[in-house]
Write a structure and sequence with these properties.
alpha+beta, six-stranded antiparallel sheet, 225 residues, two-stranded antiparallel ribbon, 20% strand
Length: 225
């Protein structure tokens, strides 16, 4: 019986490490494949600037708070942040696992149950929004010029990620700082559908350069060197 138990355990470990190796290799290879690489350049005078912003792990899509196409103040309100500061020019959107977002402000707060639910797509999601007055371009922040038509596509993608696209449901009492807020979102986070997968799909929706598929931020930023 003991021999059979060790054999069974061995097969489980073999399967786990095989899956892990395949997962990592797939992530590294597929994330390097570029889609929309032949996107036409947009004249700056007719373009709308957006940004991709990374904190080293997670990618946000950053857009103007208002322009002729979209005024985000109708959905995401300054009054729902701690500072209530309305002198902002940009708003960042970052989709992710609700439990991870709200229960893990620091890595030291991570619980095994939260990690399990996030990994296997058995929990709900949330949208994290952050207001910015200005952004500084660098390795972790890239400016992208998009056409008005493609910006409208991006607006639709972001809006449709909320459980209620017209009146996003604010998750009161949760924030990382003074200029951010959380809202209920659609979908489930998993090993195959991460915050960076969402941001990458946002770029695809806007017909911009993106990875064929990625789960990590470098899989996005490698296409914008």
């Amino acid at each position: 019986m003991l021999k059979k138990s060790f054999k069974f355990l061995g097969w489980i470990l073999f399967g786990f490490f095989t899956f892990l190796a395949l997962y990592i290799s797939s992530v590294l290879i597929i994330s390097r494949i570029t889609v929309n690489s032949d996107i036409a350049q947009v004249d700056e005078q007719d373009a709308i600037p957006i940004y991709i912003l990374s904190n080293g792990v997670h990618t946000d899509i950053v857009v103007p708070i208002k322009n002729e196409i979209k005024d985000w103040r109708n959905q995401i309100q300054f009054s729902q942040t701690q500072s209530k500061d309305s002198l902002m020019n940009y708003i960042a959107f970052g989709w992710g696992d609700k439990g991870f977002y709200l229960e893990t402000p620091e890595w030291s707060d991570l619980k095994a149950s939260t990690a399990f639910k996030a990994a296997f797509g058995v929990s709900s999601s949330a949208m994290h929004t952050t207001f910015f007055k200005q952004l500084r371009e660098g390795d972790d922040c890239k400016r992208i010029l998009v056409s008005k038509e493609n910006y409208q596509n991006l607006v639709n993608y972001i809006s449709n990620s909320f459980t209620d696209p017209i009146h996003p449901q604010w998750i009161e009492g949760h924030s990382y700082g003074k200029k951010d807020a959380f809202y209920e979102a659609k979908g489930s986070y998993s090993l195959f559908n991460t915050c960076n997968t969402w941001a990458n799909s946002a770029l695809k929706a806007a017909n911009q350069k993106a990875s064929l598929w990625t789960v990590y931020d470098k899989g996005i930023f490698c296409h914008y060197k």
